[in-house]
Amino acid sequence: MESLDLRVLGDVLQWRKAGHAVTLVTVVETWGSAPRPPGALLAVRDDGVVSGSVSGGCVEDDLIARTRASFQQVVPGAPALAKPGMIVYGASKEEVTRFGLPCGGTLRLVQEPVVDSTWVDQLLKRTADHQLVARSLTLATGGVQLSSALRGQGIAFDGTTLTTVFGPKWRLLLIGAGQLSQAVAQIAGMLDFEVLVCDPREEYAATFIQGAPNIQRLEGMPDDVVREMLPGAHTAIVALTHDPKLDDMALIEALQSSAFYVGALGSRKNQEARKQRLSEHFDLSPEELARLHGPVGLALGAKTPAEIAVSILAEIVQVKNGVVGGVLAVRATVATPGCALN
Known about the structure:
Distance between the termini: 8 Å
Oligomer: single chain
């Protein structure tokens, strides 16, 4: 689940606390070309304000119109729907033309009233604690249950129960607070990563934090920081100091962790020397060393710090999205029991 959808749930919680009625819409299945995947969320407030999207703009206007119309028929602040229901767009050629669905696509959605927002609050707290959470909605009753999810578990719908998975926000730990790190942090923030930086060199870190107040600094030596933060499968770690005393010690811990991406700055010659050091002196296995992305980033011919930052984030996103050699490792657009969408 994308952090964009966690932000939608954050808006839902605020709106309900403010006394608004809210309808939540979830993409369940797609056929043909679809700009938003199964599990994507759209929240519609009783006054028509929206958060998120389910089609990239194709059907949102109709959803808002029909939701506002239903809200106008009930007491203000009360749910417009008695229980969850299904909505299908693109079932006919006329609908495809009317809503501008790309390539003749079809969307199947679940629409539900958010009556009790307790589950929203609990889910957001658990994901903020870097837990992977499964949410099960029973359509017949509107009941919601939360449970722990497994890495790789995805959306599932059997006609009666819809289960969606919400993961913690993607994190990026930067080892080093130089000019390149600042560029990487800026772009990572635009991609909605939670950015952390570790650099024991005060002369670098102080300037970095002044220019990036929304980025958290983790104090201490890099290897200690990596070890203590227990990187999970939603964490990327990139060493950018160009100082083996700092980079190598952090990489030792990172390569033995569950971080989905570990990268290091340096030429191919330097990377080979680094792997040799790590293998001979720190007993890292060939499998662990093979996880290291170095030289870090995609080969874009980058020269400036900003261009290098783009190449680094492009490779991180590529790995995060399960793309190998420009091809999706797993491609699934229809939610079925047991279907895995990472």
